[in-house]
């Protein structure tokens, strides 16, 4: 392959981006685990097949529930199965109709999943925006309540001060009245005393 051809060559995932586990939608090109083609034409990763082994290379398909033979996807596959993953289905010697039907079915399944995920993402984004708006509203309400509380606290403080002032004034008045009363009593006392002194001296005693 020339350098120019190498530059134009697509990465391997370009040809196999549609190959995915039909159960968990893990992608084949990420090479995270082994993938199998089942005789029911479903593709599954080894993680999804775990626990479904019936006998050597025979699994119960999690999608159609058929007991089927499985073949690991890779270069060691038999030619009649390997051609299903060929990047150019119309190449000579291939059953183009069979290959295209297989690949289209898997592409459609993959795109449908992408669409579901995209609409789910859109829904999450809508919920996030809604939650953000609610949070902003709650924050604004809190701020308003905080201002209102501050205002009421200042008002309460002012009322307490005024009340203290009124109390002080009235206690001053009370003490001045009582001191006036005391003076009056004392004057009366003096008068009485004087009178009694007079009595003691018996000024009328002729
Ligand atoms: Zn899987
Ligand atoms: Zn199946």
From TrEMBL:
Q: Provide the transmembrane region boundaries.
A: none
Pfam families found in the cross-reference section: zf-RING_5 (PF14634)
Which key words tag this protein in UniProt?
Meiosis, Metal-binding, Zinc, Zinc-finger
Signal sequence segment: none
Name the domain of life: Eukaryota
Q: Which gene encodes it?
A: LOC101899874
This chain belongs to the protein called RING finger protein vilya
Q: Which Gene3D superfamilies match?
A: Zinc/RING finger domain, C3HC4 (zinc finger)
SUPFAM superfamilies (alphabetical): RING/U-box
Q: Where is the composition biased (Low complexity)?
A: 169-183
Per the record, which residues fall in region Disordered?
Answer: 161-183
Which residues does the UniProt record annotate as the domain RING-type? 21-64
| PANTHER family documented for this protein | RING FINGER PROTEIN NARYA-RELATED
């Amino acid at each position: 392959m020339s350098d120019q051809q190498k530059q134009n060559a697509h990465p391997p995932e370009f040809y196999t981006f549609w190959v995915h586990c039909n159960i968990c939608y893990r992608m084949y090109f990420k090479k995270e685990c082994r993938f199998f083609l089942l005789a029911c034409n479903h593709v599954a990763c080894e993680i999804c097949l775990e626990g479904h082994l019936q006998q050597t290379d025979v699994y119960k398909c999690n999608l159609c529930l058929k007991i089927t033979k499985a073949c690991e996807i890779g270069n060691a596959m038999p030619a009649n199965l390997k051609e299903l993953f060929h990047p150019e289905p119309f190449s000579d010697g291939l059953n183009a109709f069979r290959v295209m039907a297989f690949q289209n079915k898997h592409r459609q399944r993959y795109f449908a999943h992408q669409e579901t995920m995209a609409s789910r993402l859109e829904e999450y984004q809508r919920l996030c925006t809604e939650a953000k708006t609610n949070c902003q509203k709650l924050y604004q309400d809190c701020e308003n309540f905080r201002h209102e509380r501050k205002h009421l606290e200042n008002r309460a403080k002012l009322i307490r001060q005024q009340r203290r002032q009124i109390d002080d004034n009235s206690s001053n008045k009370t003490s001045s009245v009582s001191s006036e009363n005391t003076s009056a009593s004392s004057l009366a006392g003096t008068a009485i005393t004087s009178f009694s002194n007079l009595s003691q001296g018996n000024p009328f005693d002729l």
